[in-house]
Specification:
The protein is of the alpha+beta class. It folds into two domains: about 1-35 and about 125-183, VC0467-like; about 45-125, Alpha-Beta Plaits (2-Layer Sandwich), CATH 3.30.70. The chain has helices at about 100-110, 130-135, 145-150, 160-165, and strands at about 10, 25-30, 35-40, 45-50, 60-65, 70-80, 90, 95, 115-125, 140-145. The relative contact order is 0.23.
Length: about 180
């Protein structure tokens, strides 16, 4: 896929050296002439959402590292547009943000699980033209976002699952080592 647009998954090429994005999957939420905004969706950190949101109760929802920028900002993705209004539709059944009070109510009701809503600290950002250049350099592979990837049950295997979405031509990169010298 050559075009860049909201609703794409950016899949780090297997040998990307940048530790912020090595083997990462980023959901592109906004892409404009002034820059791009995305959320890294496959990096769980050793914190719980309840430590960051007052009034959410003692729920064990994991927290994800959304990217290296804006580490004082909390974002959430969900597939609950009727329970959490105000979110921006990113792709089929994938929404970014919305009414936080409604999200807290839904979580506190005991109906929310990690499969329906996920919280992220920080984000990935690109200045005007930067993402386009990185795509030319082949730092990223891309595919349209699918909810089974964005809300994958095992974030540690999400990169491999996303690569599989690219088709058979890319299947062998799934098992590439991080460093070719280990091969």
């Amino acid at each position: 896929m050559n075009r860049i647009e909201s609703g794409m998954l950016l899949i780090a090429e297997p040998f990307l050296k940048d530790p912020n994005f090595q083997r990462s999957v980023v959901l592109l939420c906004e892409h404009e002439s002034t820059g791009s905004f995305g959320i890294t969706i496959n990096r769980v950190i050793d914190e719980k959402v309840a430590n960051f949101i007052e009034g959410i109760g003692n729920h064990e929802l994991p927290l994800f590292e959304g990217g290296p920028v804006g580490l004082d900002q909390l974002h959430f993705l969900h597939r609950l547009p009727f329970q959490i209004p105000g979110g921006k539709k990113i792709a089929d059944n994938i929404y970014w943000g919305g009414n936080l009070e409604a999200a807290k109510y839904f979580i506190n009701s005991g109906k929310a699980g990690n499969d329906g809503i996920r919280f992220f600290i920080g984000y990935a950002g690109w200045e005007a033209g930067q993402l386009k250049q990185e795509m030319k350099e082949k730092s990223w592979l891309s595919v349209l976002a699918a909810e089974e990837i964005v809300f994958h049950e095992d974030p540690k295997s999400m990169w491999k699952a996303a690569v599989k979405q690219l088709g058979d031509d890319f299947s062998e990169i799934i098992n590439y080592p991080l460093d070719l010298s280990f091969n």
